Amino acid sequence: MEEFVQSSGEDGIVVFSLGSMVKNLTEEKANLIASALAQIPQKVLWRYKGKKPATLGANTRLYDWIPQNDLLGHPKAKGFITHGGTNGIYEAIYHGVPMVGVPMFADQPDNIAHMKAKGAAVEVNINTMTSADLLNALRTVINEPSYKENAVRLSRIHHDQPVKPLDRAVFWIEFVMRHKGAKHLRPAAHDLTWFQYHSLDCKRLSTAFKQEID
């Protein structure tokens, strides 16, 4: 994989993943995407388990799994095609990589909307996009400097913390150990029954249930 990445030269690489829940696409959609990828000078690492698209270009390789965070952190990373999952978004922000968002469900459309608003992403609709749409989106985030600049600006903000995240995690783990489980921080909810936790009035529920039966 590293040899493939290094073979990209000055053009660099594009990382492509639609997350762990989307393992394959329709043959038509996969060919549409592969056709667009084949037209860019960058090398593409695509996490995809479906049938190999007939339009797959020599610049694109398919993988069952990719070390996504490591690839986004590689100095040759030029763009990230993502479904907009929270982990991928934060990894791209951390490494300052501009995105092409292809959201599908849950929090993904909202995540991509935030990245668009910050000028770090372009969105394409997975249901209606053409090869030209995806190709234009890729060319935009890779070739227009503002997208990289905005991604790097977000990265600087993300990195600017008083304590490194790993040091903070180590501190709290050792804090709990030093204080024998830190019971003073334990939420009282752990000591409640399920009906107390959900604030259920059992007496009234019982009366209401009896009235329904009667």
Description:
This protein is of the alpha/beta class and 214 residues long. The protein has two domains: 2-159, 3-Layer(aba) Sandwich (Rossmann fold), CATH 3.40.50.2000; 165-213, no CATH class. The chain is built from ten helices and six strands. It has a six-stranded parallel sheet with strand order 3-2-1-4-5-6, sandwiched between helices. The N and C termini lie far apart (71 Å). The model has no long low-confidence stretch (mean pLDDT 92). GO terms for molecular function: glucuronosyltransferase activity. Its main location: membrane. InterPro entries: UDP-glycosyltransferase (IPR050271), UDP_glucos_trans (IPR002213), UDP_glycos_trans_CS (IPR035595). It is found in: Membrane.
